[in-house]
Amino acid sequence: MKWWAHILGSVFIALALAPREVATVPVLVAIGAVLPDAVERMVGARHRSLHELSIYLILTGPLALAGFATLAIGAVDHILTDAMTIHGVTVFGYRLKGPFNTNVWLHNAASVLIHFTVTAFLV
Fold first, then answer.
1. Residue numbers of the domain that contains 17
2. Rounded to 5 degrees, what are φ and ψ at 23?
3. CB burial readout 31-59, b (16+ within 10 A) else e
4. Is residue 1 a contact partner of residue 81, using CB atoms and an 8 Å limit?
């Protein structure tokens, strides 16, 4: 998905889980939402080559325990959102993929709408 869809979707989820932290949640979750792609660029990996959900769950676990849960939520949500795309993500060696095309703005908007719907159920 596009960066804006990752950020908006993650912010919806994080605000539903931590509604009292309105001042810090959007900033931290926005950073977390772009973290997977930023990590790939920093280490010189091609896009989605490190999008292994199990790796991100292991890496973000300590972040959550250290008080950076919103950062971890954004990063994991990024990977789960990418699992909804036609390129998908790998989970323990299996490829999970969905119907959305990252380059279609309507698919990105649908992703944000799905996040909004999930948020409504969480609140």
1. 3-122
2. -70, -40
3. bbbbbbbeebeeeeeeebebbbbeebeeb
4. yes
Name the domain count of the chain.
1
Residue 24, helix vs strand vs coil: coil
Query: pTM of the full predicted structure?
Result: 0.81
**1 close to 108: Cβ distance less than 8 angstroms:** yes
pLDDT tens-digit series, residues 58-93: 878 888 887 778 888 888 899 889 999 999 888 877
Q: Which two tokens stand for residue 15?
A: 């605000």
CA–CA distance, 91 with 73 (Å, rounded to integer): 17
The tokens describing 67, both together, are 């008080």
* Helix 3-17 / helix 25-43 crossing angle, nearest 10 deg: 140
Over residues 11-23, the pLDDT tens digits come to 888 888 776 766 6
Provide the token pair at 89: 């993500």
| Helix 69-82 × helix 53-65 angle, to 10° | 170
How far is the C-alpha of 75 from the C-alpha of 51, rounded, in Å? 10
- State residue 100 phi and psi, 5-degree precision: -80, 140
